[in-house]
Fold:
Amino acid sequence: MRAVQVYDTTLRDGAQTEGISFSADDKLKITQKLDWMGVHYVEGGYPGSNPKDMEYFERLRELSLETAQVTAFGSTRKKNVRPADDENLAVILKSGVQIATLVGKSWDFHVTRALDTTLAENLSMIRESVTYLKEQGLEVIYDAEHFFDGYRANPDYALATLEAAVAGGASVLALCDTNGGVLPWDLGPVVSLVCARFSVPVGIHTHNDAGMAVANTLTAVQAGAGHIQGTINGYGERCGNADLCAVIPNLSLKCGIETLPKDRIKHLVELSRYVSEIANVHPNPQQPYVGMSAFASKAGIHVSALMKDPLTYEHVNPEAVGNRRRVLVSELSGVSNMLHRLRELDFNIPNQGETARQILAQLKELEHQGFQFESAEGSFELLVMRATNGYQNPFLLESLRILTEMKESGTVHSEATIKLRVGEKTVHTAAEGNGPVNALDNALRKALEQFYPGIKKMRLTDYKVRVLDEAAGTGALVRVLIETADGQRSWVTVGVSQNIIEASWQALADSFAYGLLKQPAAQQS
Structure:
């Protein structure tokens, strides 16, 4: 079986994403996860760029890696400077790595404009820098920056830069589509030519500015490239890099090309979410293969076919990458959707077909009012429970009052007073908060914890508000989504009203009710 080397640059290119900043601790954690996944190369960063990256390389010695080799990124020596005197090359050596990734100019336009030097000097810069690091005992991967633009402008010179890197001893020639504007049919023939011309492995490094990063990476592999560079979740500067979470399964599951160990590919969803959590970036639900919606079906005709055979609407088995099939219920749903969800939730309901129709009718009416249950699976399950016999609400609201005071100093003070009935008992209490929803949350907890101590394990992890009819201004209908977690699971609930407090109460009350109903009795006390 043909195999390719997987080179991850999340810690360097991915860290250049707007809004992402990894600490040294973050980078070490991601390195360990990538190593566990079986990634061949992890680009740790640019040690000469900031103290944080240098700290990462210093602490890297504490890790015991099994599969991944960490590389330090840097550029070729400066013009008219000896390699031994170049600060950039010196910090690569100081980092303590055994592999360096050097970037050099392949586009004559960049040489004369950006570097302000001659074409001959640039070739010397490439060859001498690679040679110097090789003489110090390092393996060198050469990143040919702007290679495809350079080849289009001056093919002879672009190829000459690769010749210089090979003459210096580079072990891999990674061709970079740095501006991300090359199309697959232009890229493929160039990669084929380079692979035929050089005996060293050829790699590919693409950006996604034209939406072609994954397609260009696959095209390069088809043309002979044996080394792929990309990032987890496609993070990267501007529009991002090639998403390894799509490249890897495409190559392994569809092309029969070995990337990561077979038993690790099924953990791609776990890897994707692990990195997004550390990056503090909300996962993209529509992300191919690993997104929450990647194998979600909403249209009734799709679900009906899926129930007969998943191959009707799935290009691969979701479990192959650690994902799962999801059937959504909405105003577009048919009875097939509802029956499938009831079976997933293990509801044993007499006359299930008729009950499913009744619940579906109620759901469609609620969605007409502005509710949405696709992501609010906690509220959906409560909807089903309430439509069946035997449901007991763990608490009932009798009254609620919220006071908010803004002082001249600009400080805001909120207090919620709540009266609840739990079984035959009534509890009346109040609590403060830094805002009305926080005060409401605190008051509800205070009232219920004496009956349900398990509530202490629940915490609100996300709160979203969406205006549904913008033309209504401050009187608009709003939808509130609340995500709650208890250390074992997380769930989302929804509320809708023209009053944001009422909508928040609906979602918050559902979140506590659902969490309590799902907790074993032993955990509630």
The chain has 19 helices and 16 strands. The chain has three domains: 5-279, 296-368, 396-524.
